[in-house]
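Structural prep section.
Before we set up the soaks we want a predicted structure of the protein with heme C in place, mainly to decide which crystallisation condition to try first. Input record follows.
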Amino acid sequence: MTHRLWPAGLVPAAVILAACAMPNEMPVASDGAKIFAANCVACHGADARGGAGPDLTAIAARNDGVFPRARMLSVIDGYSRDIHEGRAMPEFGASLSGETVPVDIDGTLTPTPRDLAALLAYLESIQS
Ligand code: HEC
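Run finished without errors. Recording the C-alpha cells verbatim:
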C-alpha cells in the first residue's frame, strides 16, 4: 500500500527551492574555510601549514609577496597537472564544479566555480 505524504510535485519543488536559496553574494574566506576543513586538512593540516604539502600560509611569501591566483586555481582544480607531475595533490575540479561566480584572476574576471572561489578567498586570507 502506498501512502502519499505530500501532493505530487511538492517534494521536488521544495528541493528546487532549497537549491535556489544559495546566497548569491561572492563567497568569502569563511566559506572556503569550511570547504578546506572538509577536503584539505587531511594533507595540509588544520592550520594549512603542514602535513603532506607545502606551507599554504606562505604561498605569497614564496612568490615575492604576490598571491598567484591563476596558478593556485590550477593547482586546486587540477588543470596544471604538469606542474605537479606525479605528485600527491589530488584534483578537485570535478567535485567543485557547478554554479560559477566572477573572480578577478590576474586582472581578468573569470567565471569560477563557487567552491573554488571560496577556497581561493580562504587561502588568500591566511597568507602570512
Ligand atoms: C592527498 C593529500 C592532499 C589533499 C587532500 C590536498 N592537498 Fe594540496 N597539496 C598536496 C601536496 C603533496 C602538495 C604539494 C604540491 C604537489 O606536489 O602536488 C599540495 C599543494 C597544494 C597547493 C600549492 C601550494 C604551492 O605553494 O604551490 C595548494 C594551493 C593546495 N595544495 C591546496 C589544497 C586545497 C585547497 C585542498 C583541498 C581542496 C588540498 N590542497 C587538498 C596534498 C594534498
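Observations: Residues 82-86 have pLDDT under 50 and may be disordered.
Flagged for discussion at group meeting.
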